[in-house]
Amino acid sequence: MKNAAPRPDGKRKGAQAAAMRISGDKAAFYNCKFVGYQDTLCDDKGNHFFKDCYIEGTVDFIFGEARSLYLNTEIHVQSEDPAAVITAHARNSADGEGGYSFVHCNVTGTGSHALLGRAWMEAARVVYSYCTFSDVVNPEGWSDNSKPEFQK
After folding, report:
1. Residue 118 DSSP SS3
2. Is-contact 39 16, C-beta < 8 A?
3. What are the CA-CA distances from residue 21 to residues 16, 30, 65, 124, 141 (Å)?
4. Per-residue pLDDT reduced to its tens digit, 114-145
5. Predicted confidence (pLDDT) at residue 12 exceeds the cutoff of 60
6. pTM score, two decimals?
C-alpha cells in the first residue's frame, strides 16, 4: 500500500494522509509494504499482526491506539528531519489494553535523528524486543511529547 499523494510541505493543515488505516479487530498482514511520509500506518483500533512487512515513513508513521505485534518487520525511516519519530501510540490510561510490540524487527533508514516513539497520549506503550537498530535512531530514544507528566 503506497500513499502516492504529494508529500506535505508543512504549510497546510491536514496535509498528511495515511497509506493504510486499520480499525477492525483481528487483522493480519503478511509480506506487505506500507510506504508513506507522515502518518503512514494508522494502526487505530483492535488487535493486529504484521509479519515480514516493510513500513516506511518520517513522522509518527505508525500511530493509533491498537494492540499490535510486528514480527520480522523492517521499519524504515526516510528522513533527515530532526522531528522524525517512528511511533505515536495513543493509549489514554494505564489500564488500557493497547500497545505496539516490535519483535525481531530491523530499524533502518537515512539520517540520525529518529526517535523510537513519542507519547501521543499519557499512557503510550511501545516495546522493541530483539530488534536491530541502525544509526538512524537518536540515542535519546523517546520523546515525552514536551509533557513531563508523560514520563511514566
Report:
1. strand
2. yes
3. 13, 16, 12, 19, 26
4. 999 887 777 778 899 999 999 999 888 887 66
5. no
6. 0.87
Q: Does 1 fall in a domain?
A: no
Position 131, amino acid = C
Residues labelled catalytic:
60
Closest CA to 74 of 120, 15, 134: 134
DSSP for 57-105 reads ESEEEEEES-EEEEES-EEEEE---TT-EEEEE---STT---EEEEES-
pLDDT digits (tens, 9 = 90+) for 14-61: 556 788 999 999 999 999 999 988 889 999 999 999 999 999 998 889
Q: CATH number of the domain at 56, please.
A: 2.160.20.10
- From the list 45, 46, 86, the residue with the least C-alpha distance to 62 is 86
147 assigned to some structural domain: no
In a domain, 149, yes or no: no
